[in-house]
């Protein structure tokens, strides 16, 4: 029996103006909603991992040095992401505005690509080349709108360093889109207006897919799932054929060959190579692989809850590590995930009777149900595949972070929207659009509200401390936020609580030491710094402050030793270079001091204090004009610096008196 036309089927009437321009209208709508939902984040401060990755990261401060090899040396597996931070620094220094604007742009672009990917998916052989039912026509728009306004995405967008999560998703989806477009152009009827195959254009899309895949691989490790995602996509939406099997087999062979070359070039025994793999495939040794996997069953259930009901979001969850599958939280989460996987399998199997032209003899109702069922299956399986790196057997110290669901959310929203449309596909079009608009509007408002938490360090960590009151890191950061507001006594209480919860928290010890320094308790501060560097020998900021305290106590020799320890490990630490120069200058080693100040300036060209100290060194050498030039630059960079102004006035007066 041929398909019967339902009220919801696409109308063969002439195209309206809206239908002619619906794609740019849809893209514009996504952009406007994305900008509106994140408009209150443009001045949100750097937080948590933003500090070491951006604020304290000298490699991003000089683009030529970054491209010269320092960027790859800093983090070889995420060099593309850090390159974008270097661009931001080049354009606007450490003003968070540009970084947030960049993140919002990536987020909107990613939503656009998801929309286009889902549109081209509806032209794959599984769906045929005929008119698309209005339920399916709505799916790309609805899924992309949810992606752009859903509150669970806030951490990947507003938390600046998590651009790595959004950027890898952009490249990931671009890879899928270019691959899908190239495949469609190779199928009969997929060549646009003419319906002819276009192998040359298809090849260009495949080349672009390879480029985006390489960019994804250099942005974040989750790109390792791309081959599986491509296989899943091809399996769901393209007919199995001998040519396809040969193509996929060749790809797998190339992958194995590349892996073999890497192994042979390493020149190591097999046992040592396996040890290297074990080390690379874990971020922490404090969590067993089995315990991490068990815990992730509960974590993934939490992600699913956030996707459906985004309440009680938290930057820093105090999440337990489970050790038994039969812990109630884990067991019921495991059952939920098994059930969800079973739904995907059932939908995959049941939809096979309606795809690839098999459904032409079905009535349209069954045809549409089968097509939506295939999208449900694909979305669920996408969710599991893209979570497999961070939520499986690769232990990561933080078992849960909301930004990790950014890429999986693309599949989750596809499945969720397909399920909603499956339930509502016989309802009037206006009712479906109205319900869609209401849900998108509510999520946009909740996203904007969630972003108000990110307006300051104090508001963000205040939110965290309410939800994770017994977490050491939360208390530490809330204490730091309080100290920046001048609330030092309160800050010290939270830092002490952080150390009560975890006495081996080196960062909390360092921060407590800083506050003790501010209150004049130098001996106690030194004790904190010494304990901090004992626990974390590479905590360079603590060494730097130890050296400063030694200078204050008149122990210049010890201070110089501390600075040299830091600079041996971190030669581009501008503050330590400047402070070492000050210690050398105070001990009469003027030429050595000048060299240190110049190095500090070369590393950090905007470092006003180093210019001022270099001016002092030139004064000590009797080079008055050179000293004045350095003081003038210090004042230009930091007009409010009273010491630099005083030094400049003194030097000018000395020069005038000399005449």
Low-confidence stretches: 1-13, 272-277
Instruction: Identify the overall geometry.
Output: elongated
**Helical proportion, percent range:** over 70%
| Alpha-beta content class | mainly alpha
Mean pLDDT: 87
Structure description:
This protein has 30 helices and no strands. It is mainly α. It has a domain at 27-46 and 94-239 and 281-452. The longest helix is centred in the N-terminal third of the chain and has 26 residues, at 96-121.
Topology, element by element:
Layout: H1 17-20, H2 22-37, H3 50-55, H4 63-74, H5 79-92, H6 96-121, H7 134-149, H8 154-158, H9 163-185, H10 199-217, H11 226-237, H12 242-266, H13 270-280, H14 289-308, H15 328-351, H16 364-387, H17 406-424, H18 429-452, H19 457-467, H20 472-484, H21 488-501, H22 506-518, H23 522-535, H24 540-552, H25 556-569, H26 574-586, H27 590-603, H28 608-621, H29 624-637, H30 642-658
Helix pairs in contact: 2-6, 2-7, 2-18, 4-5, 5-6, 6-7, 6-9, 7-17, 7-18, 9-10, 9-11, 11-16, 14-15, 15-16, 16-17, 19-20, 20-21, 20-22, 21-22, 22-23, 23-24, 24-25, 24-26, 25-26, 26-27, 26-28, 27-28, 28-29, 28-30, 29-30
């Amino acid at each position: 029996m041929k398909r019967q036309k339902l009220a919801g089927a696409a109308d063969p009437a002439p195209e309206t103006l809206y239908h002619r321009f619906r794609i740019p209208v849809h893209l514009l709508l996504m952009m406007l909603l994305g900008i509106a939902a994140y408009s209150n984040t443009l001045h949100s401060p750097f937080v948590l991992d933003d500090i070491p990755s951006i604020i304290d990261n000298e490699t991003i401060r000089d683009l030529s040095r970054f491209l010269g090899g320092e960027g790859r040396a800093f983090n070889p597996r995420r060099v593309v992401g850090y390159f974008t931070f270097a661009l931001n620094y080049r354009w606007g220094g450490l003003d968070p505005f540009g970084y947030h604007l960049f993140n919002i742009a990536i987020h909107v672009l990613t939503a656009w690509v998801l929309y286009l990917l889902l549109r081209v998916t509806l032209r794959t052989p599984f769906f045929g080349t005929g008119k698309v039912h209005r339920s399916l026509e709505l799916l790309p728009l609805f899924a992309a709108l949810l992606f752009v306004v859903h509150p669970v995405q806030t951490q990947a967008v507003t938390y600046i360093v998590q651009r790595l999560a959004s950027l890898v998703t952009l490249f990931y989806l671009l890879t899928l889109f270019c691959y899908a477009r190239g495949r469609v152009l190779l199928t009969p009827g997929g060549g646009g207006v003419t319906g002819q195959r276009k192998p040359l254009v298809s090849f260009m899309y495949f080349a672009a897919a390879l480029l985006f895949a390489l960019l994804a691989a250099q942005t974040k490790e989750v790109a390792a799932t791309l081959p599986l995602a491509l296989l899943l996509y091809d399996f769901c939406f393209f007919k199995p054929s001998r040519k396809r099997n040969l193509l996929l087999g060749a790809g797998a062979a190339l992958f194995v060959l590349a892996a073999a070359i890497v192994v042979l070039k390493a020149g190591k025994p097999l046992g040592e190579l396996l040890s290297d793999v074990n080390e690379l495939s874990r971020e922490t040794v404090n969590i067993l692989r089995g315990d991490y996997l068990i815990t992730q069953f509960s974590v993934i259930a939490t992600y699913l809850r956030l996707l459906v009901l985004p309440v009680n979001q938290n930057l820093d969850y105090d999440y337990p590590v489970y050790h038994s599958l039969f812990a109630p939280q884990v067991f019921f989460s495991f059952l939920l995930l098994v059930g969800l996987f079973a739904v995907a399998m059932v939908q995959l199997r049941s939809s096979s009777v309606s795809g690839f032209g098999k459904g032409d003899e079905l009535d349209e109702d069954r045809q549409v149900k089968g097509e939506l069922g295939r999208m449900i299956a694909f979305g669920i399986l996408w969710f599991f595949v893209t979570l497999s790196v961070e939520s499986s057997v690769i232990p990561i110290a933080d078992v849960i972070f909301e930004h990790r669901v950014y890429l999986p959310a693309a599949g989750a929203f596809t499945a969720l929207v397909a399920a909603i449309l499956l339930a509502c596909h016989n309802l009037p079009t206006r009712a479906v659009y109205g319900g869609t608009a209401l849900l998108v509007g509510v999520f946009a408002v909740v996203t904007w509200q969630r972003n108000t938490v990110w307006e300051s360090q104090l508001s963000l960590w205040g939110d965290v401390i309410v939800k994770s009151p017994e977490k050491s890191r939360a208390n530490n950061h809330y204490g730091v936020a309080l100290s920046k507001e001048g609330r030092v006594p309160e800050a010290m209480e939270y830092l002490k609580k952080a150390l009560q919860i975890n006495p081996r928290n080196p960062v909390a010890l360092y921060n407590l030491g800083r506050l003790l320094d501010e209150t004049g308790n130098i001996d106690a501060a030194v004790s904190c710094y010494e304990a901090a560097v004992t626990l974390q020998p590479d905590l360079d900021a603590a060494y730097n402050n130890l050296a400063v305290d030694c200078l204050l106590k008149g122990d210049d020799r010890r201070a110089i030793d501390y600075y040299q320890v830091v600079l041996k490990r971190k030669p581009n630490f501008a503050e330590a270079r400047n402070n070492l120069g000050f210690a050398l200058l105070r001990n009469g080693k003027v030429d050595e001091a000048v060299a240190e100040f110049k190095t500090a300036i070369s590393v950090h060209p905007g470092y006003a204090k180093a210019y001022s100290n270099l001016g002092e060194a030139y004064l000590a050498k009797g080079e008055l004009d050179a000293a004045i030039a350095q003081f003038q630059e210090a004042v230009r960079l930091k007009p409010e610096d009273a010491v630099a102004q005083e030094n400049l006035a003194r030097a000018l007066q000395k020069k005038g008196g000399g005449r």
